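Practice problem 4.
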C-alpha cells in the first residue's frame, strides 16, 4: 500500500530465518527473542543473517511483510468466488479466525495481535509495516462485502468500507481479549456481532 517498496523473498536461507523466527516470536514476542536463538533454531550461521538483514529492526519489517503476504494469499483464496455466496465465504473466514485464535496452537496465532502493542513503540518502520498490512487485509474484506451488497446478501444501505473496518477492529480486539480470558467468549461475541452488522442475524 502507498509508496513503500516491496520486500522481495530471495533464497531459501532468508525464508528459513523468517519462518523459524515467526514461530518463536509468536510465543515470546519480538524484544524478548535474541538473534542467536532464532539462528540456532534455524541452523543458520550469524553471518548469513546480516547478509539478508542489516539490523533486527529491518528483520522485523521483513518478518511482518512476509506474514502479511502469506496472510493475504490465504485470505484471497478463502474469499475467491467459488460459486458459493459472498456471505458464506466471509463467515467461513471469520469462523476460521475464531477457531485458530481460540486454539492452543501457538503457530496459528495472529502476529498482528502479538506484536502491535510492543513494536509500535519500538520502531516507526515496523509500525508503518503493520499499518500497511492491516489496511491490505481490510481492503480485501471490503471487496467481499461490496460484492455481497451488490448481490443483495447484505443491506443496500451499508457503507462497505466503514462496516468492514468496524468488524476488523472488533475481531482484533476480541482476539486480544481471548488471550486474556483464555476462552472463546470474546470471539463468539464478535461472530454474533458481525452477523448482526451485516444483516445476517
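Answer key:
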Amino acid at each position: 500500500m502507498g509508496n513503500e517498496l516491496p520486500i522481495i523473498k530471495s533464497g531459501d536461507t532468508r525464508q528459513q530465518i523468517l519462518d523459524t523466527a515467526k514461530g518463536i516470536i509468536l510465543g515470546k514476542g519480538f524484544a524478548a527473542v535474541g538473534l542467536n536463538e532464532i539462528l540456532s533454531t534455524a541452523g543458520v550461521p550469524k553471518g548469513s543473517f546480516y547478509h539478508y538483514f542489516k539490523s533486527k529492526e529491518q528483520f522485523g519489517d521483513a518478518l511482518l511483510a512476509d506474514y502479511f503476504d502469506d496472510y493475504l494469499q490465504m485470505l484471497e483464496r478463502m474469499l475467491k468466488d467459488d460459486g458459493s455466496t459472498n456471505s458464506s465465504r466471509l463467515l467461513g473466514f471469520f469462523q476460521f479466525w475464531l477457531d485458530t485464535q481460540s486454539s492452543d496452537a501457538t503457530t496459528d496465532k495472529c502476529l498482528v495481535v502479538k506484536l502491535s502493542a510492543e513494536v509500535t513503540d519500538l520502531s516507526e518502520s515496523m509500525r508503518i509495516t503493520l499499518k500497511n498490512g492491516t489496511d491490505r487485509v481490510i481492503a480485501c474484506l471490503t471487496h467481499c462485502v461490496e460484492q455481497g451488497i451488490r448481490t443483495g446478501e447484505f443491506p443496500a444501505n451499508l457503507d462497505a468500507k466503514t462496516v468492514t473496518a468496524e468488524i476488523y477492529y472488533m475481531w482484533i480486539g476480541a482476539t486480544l481479549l481471548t488471550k486474556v480470558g483464555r476462552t472463546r467468549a470474546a470471539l463468539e461475541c464478535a461472530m454474533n456481532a458481525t452477523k448482526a452488522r451485516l444483516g445476517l442475524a
